[in-house]
Fold this sequence. Notes:
The chain has 249 residues and is mainly β. The protein has a single domain (16-243), classed as Jelly Rolls. Helices cover 2% and strands 51% of the residues. It has one helix and 20 strands. The strands form three sheets. Strands 1, 13, 14, 15, 16, 17, 18, 19 and 20 form a nine-stranded mixed beta sheet that branches. Strand 17 (199-211) and strand 18 (214-217) form a beta hairpin. The protein starts with 15 loop residues before the first strand and ends in a 6-residue tail after the last strand. Mean pLDDT is 93; it is low at 1-8.
Amino acid sequence: MVESKTKSNSEPIEPVFKIQRAADRHFSSHGWLQTFFSFSFADYYDPQNLNWGALRVLNDDLIAPKSGFETHPHKDMEILTYVLEGELEHKDSLGHHGVVRSGGVQYMSAGTGILHSEKNAGTKPLHLLQMWVVPSQTGLTPNYGQLDLSQDDRLNRLRCVASGQKNVRADIAIHQDASFYIGCLEAQKVYHSFASGRLGFLFVASGKITANGHTLKRGDAVRMARIEPLELDGTGEVVVWDLPEVGLL
C-alpha cells in the first residue's frame, strides 16, 4: 500500500517507480509446482509486501503435466488466471468445466464461496499467472467465465481484458474499480495513462521490455504511483494493472 504523506505545496510528493526483480521474488517448489510469489502468499509472509492497492496476489506458476491444484475453496476474492503456455482445466462447485489455452484468461468471482480445481490438461508444463484482486464488497454471488484470445488480439497494444472501472470497456466485468491489460509487443511502443490517485502494476511475462527508460526482463515487475504516462517498448509479453489505492477487507 502506498503510504500517505503530507507535504507543503513547495514539496510535491515524488512519483513511485519501484522495480521488483525476478530473482527477488519468493520462490517455492513442490515438485509438481514451481512458483514465484510477487506478494505474501501461503508460507511466505512479509507484512511490508501484502498488496499493491487492490492487487493482493500475483503468482507465476509452472505446473507439471497430469498435476494441479485439487478441489479447494475461495471466498470474497476476484481471481484472474492468464495462461502463458499450456492448457488449464477448471472444474467448480457451480458445475462449470472448461479448458483455457495459451493466451486465454479465466475469471472467477469467489463471492460467498466456491470450490474448484485447476489441473494441467496437457502433456507439457503449464505456465500461468494467477492474480487476486480484493473486491469492492463482500458476499457477492459467485461467478465464473473464460476468454480465448489470439496473438493478434494482444499484438502491439494493451488490451483491456477485465475491468470494474466506469467508462472502461473490457471483455470481463470484475467487482472492483480496477482494470487488467495484457499485451504482446514486437519492437513497438505502447502507452498507458493513469488517472490522478491511481496506482499501476506492471509484470513482464516474457521477453525484454523498456518501461519509462528502465530495462526489464521476464519475471520483473514495477509498482507505480503518480506515473504519467507509462511508456513501454521492446519485445515481449506484459500485463498491466490500473488500480485504486485501497487496503484489504
